[in-house]
Amino acid sequence: MSAPTTRPPATDGTSVPPSVRNAAAWSWRLLLIGAALAVLLWLLSELKVVVVPIAVALLLTVLLTPFVGWLVRRGLPRGAAVGLSLAGLVVLVAGLLTLAGRSIVKGFGELWDQAAQGVDKLTTWLAEGPLQLTTSDISGWVDRIQGSLSGGSSELVTGALHATTTVAHVAAGSLITLFCTFFFLLDGRTIWAWVVGLLPRGSREHVHQAGRRGVVTLGAYTRTQILVAGVDALGIGLGAAILQVPLALPLAVLVFLGSFIPIVGAVVTGSIAILVALVSNGPATALWMLVVVIVVQQLEGHVLQPFLMGHAVSLHPVAVLLSVAAGSFVAGIVGALFAVPIAATLNTVMLYLHGHDKFPQLGTDDHVPVRGRGHPVLDRAIAQVAEATSERVATEAEIAERAEADEQPATVDTVAEDAGEPGGPDDASPTSRR
């Protein structure tokens, strides 16, 4: 009897467990996706001077679209309605900034004097309080602070140059925002039709309907966030005015702008209000200001955010907080500002593409968003897709009706024969023509 022979280990990969092969397949795909996302984020960061104004223009577009539609329904030409809406927005923003700026200039001198008095009180407390610091010790600390400020003159000059560049970027971004907002409001449907036309024909319909729902979500978020920010600003501004804290109006404007960063922005701006109250009016007023900020934050966190924002974007507070954290980590303050609207829009779009429609009342339109003004080739292509889709649906419905009636099994060929059209290869044969 011969000795048993051992087979060499298999080298065709069959010895690798299926779980390991699946994990390896998923791993390299995830690595490719991560690399693509990294390249995309890098491109966006390099083009942020253009990308950020376009994103702001999209938010302004969904905000002003109802007002433009209202003016058009009143008989105003669309171009005039768009121009009037933008002009009103610019006047409103400029008026608020001017009013806040005047209040800052008016109250800054008083606040500076109160801050100087606060420093004197702090110096006296350090000398006469429990620390028992000598005048020479305090003077030494003051000299060190002044020396550090004097030694950092070059950094201050560099910071000033960076600030000048930032101002130029803000001015250019504002012009880009106004320009894009005007044309988004005027020809947004044409632009969207062109974007959809770049996609394969089979995916145009789904992308178009998903995009409609994404725009609705974006508009709901923008309007709701303005309402939440207004409530925060009104509550903290009124509290500061009642407590006779200086710069109450600028603080309210700051809270309004900061509230567009959910959860984090209102906390930071509220802390600034408490600090101003402490410097100007002392610890007692600062304590009452803290109470006002906490009450406003509780109102936002337990009433406004769950009911209004939750209904508008359907995102859990944990998802909102993680989105803000991820956005601020990737793109700083800009990422924190746009993290929630991007997450909410993507959530709506992905749910629709996977069969869950958050807005069934929207239905479907004819996928021809522009009539008479779009590109003729694109319009014809979109119309052909819509016509082919309707014909296919009608044919499938007729097949289903015949199957339910227990008639002869119906196929696409038999339906086509009843319609008087050639239904298959046999119809094209010489015998069938005879």
From TrEMBL:
Transmembrane segments: 26-44, 50-72, 79-100, 166-186, 226-245, 251-279, 286-308, 320-353
Annotated organism of origin: Cellulomonas xylanilytica
Cellular localisation: Cell membrane
Cited PANTHER family: PERMEASE PERM-RELATED, TRANSMEMBRANE PROTEIN
Main localization category: membrane
InterPro entries for the chain: AI-2E-like (IPR002549)
GO cellular component: plasma membrane
Region: Disordered, residue numbers: 401-434
Membrane topology designation: Multi-pass membrane protein
Family affiliation: Belongs to the autoinducer-2 exporter (AI-2E) (TC 2.A.86) family.
Keyword match Oxidoreductase: no
Domain of life: Bacteria
Keywords: Cell membrane, Membrane, Transmembrane, Transmembrane helix, Transport
Pfam families linked to this entry: AI-2E_transport (PF01594)
Keyword Transport: yes
Protein's GO biological process: transmembrane transport
Name the record gives this protein: AI-2E family transporter
